[in-house]
Amino acid sequence: MSEHYDADVAVVGYGPTGLAGALTLAAKGARVAAFERDQDVYARARAVTINDWTMRILQDLGVDDRVERVVEPQRALRWVTYDGREVMRVEHPPSTLGTRGSKPRFYNIYQPALEAELRRCGEEHSGLDVRYGVEVVGVEQDAGGVTVTARDLATGEETATRTRYAIAADGGSSPVRKMLGIPMHGDTGDTLWIVVDCRVKRWWPDRDFLTFWTDRERPVVDIALSAGNHRWEIPLKAAETEADFPSGAEVWPLLRALGVTEDDVEIHQYAFYRHHVRMAETYRQGRVFLAGDAAHLMPPWAGAGMQTGMRDAHNLGWKIAGIVRGELGEDWLDTYEPERRPSAEFYTGMAVALGRVIKQEASPAEIEAMNTVPPNLVTPWEPPLNAPPTLAGGWLRGETGDASVVGRYLPQPLACDAVGRIDRLDALLPKGFILLGNDLDPSNLLTPEEQADWDALGASYVAVRPRTGYTRAASDLVDLEDALLPWFDRYGVQAIAVRPDKFVAAADKTGLAAPVSQR
């Protein structure tokens, strides 16, 4: 007799990470039980930006067009001193991953509005059961599944929910992580910061820059949020405490020092926090996985904390959903941490380095190094904050690095199918695993054994044709923007294997066999 499960996956925490995980799982056919302490979206904005990688994940979930209505394109980043000297700038070229009709690299967000929209999207999934106002007080697992015990905060009633797996997306203080006994290593900064969220009354010059005011004593983050909001993040001096700012009247001198007046904004709310640099010892214990702040905490300088959590959850979500559907083996779960920990470490390191610039701790040589283009690159150089993501390990076959296509994120230009329908690439590609050929049928490059492995994964085979030629099969796509075929040629490959998350897993240059066993 098969075991009864109340849902396939329990998601503990329904902030951005939990939402990304729950939406991914539900969209791909898994039943989800989500647990959230708060009835309403947390009112304070925390994250301030998302980029094209995160937006492409939302495209995969079919909600990017709705999210685009509550976010706004970001102009560029700049680091300036109080006397107006620009120390560094990062321009945002058009995205190579753009969704729908837009191509911004970065978007400014107002996190409560983003979360509210994602919650509305979740309400449309019949397989997603969200339980608000409950606290998870127990997580027990055995060989067959996980039992999550939750207490209703209003009535005190406790209920047990049986699932196959669980994702802890319950924040930096993660009760689930503590229940599992997983240590968190790292440090918390001594400096207390005040975060001031304001409603905009009028436009001022260059408001659309994300500006870092660099100063040893008062480095400040100055950023336009979406929906008519603006934020300043300001460090307090050693002798200052929260008690020194009992009301907005005491906060105003901090803003006036930056040239901001009551004619420009009104203070909406403010809060205090300290920066963390912490990483969980492991992201997994058995059938329970840590994601987002439960697994890693980073300073805000790279704008990557919330996004890293959402990417964690999407990575877990499509894999677990594939296992639940019987299409993937449980060995896929072993790829989660090797793929996600290096990314979290990379963005944490970047955030720390950028923080040294804003606090005027970075030497001229360090700043120059950040802007120095390495010689003899195959991949065109972009500042790390702009560059498309890569995978350093996990479900890959072959070496990664500058000259390799393996581990890279597939670009998303405009394309056209064989009957003339034009759209962004992802909208025309089949779902799941795909082998793409450089003006050829990629299945012709496979041995019978290799094709059998890809067929077992339900892979599709697609030839990408030049816009100057003809399609030859109903599955062919046309490279309308002359972007994909030159990308193949740059890395000297005739065919690539693309995962459901659009990372390249293998190429004919290193062998098109599937990277690991599937069942």
UniProtKB/TrEMBL annotation:
Domain of life: Bacteria
Keyword Nucleus set for record: no
Keyword Oxidoreductase on entry: yes
A molecular function GO annotation: monooxygenase activity
Keywords, comma-separated and alphabetical: Monooxygenase, Oxidoreductase
Any single Pfam family the record assigns to this protein: FAD_binding_3
Cited PANTHER family: 3-(3-HYDROXY-PHENYL)PROPIONATE/3-HYDROXYCINNAMIC ACID HYDROXYLASE, FAD-BINDING MONOOXYGENASE
Organism: Amycolatopsis albidoflavus
Lineage: Bacteria, Bacillati, Actinomycetota, Actinomycetes, Pseudonocardiales
InterPro entries: FAD-bd (IPR002938), FAD/NAD-bd_sf (IPR036188), PheA/TfdB_FAD_monoxygenase (IPR050631)
Protein name: FAD-dependent monooxygenase
Residues of the FAD-binding domain: 6-345
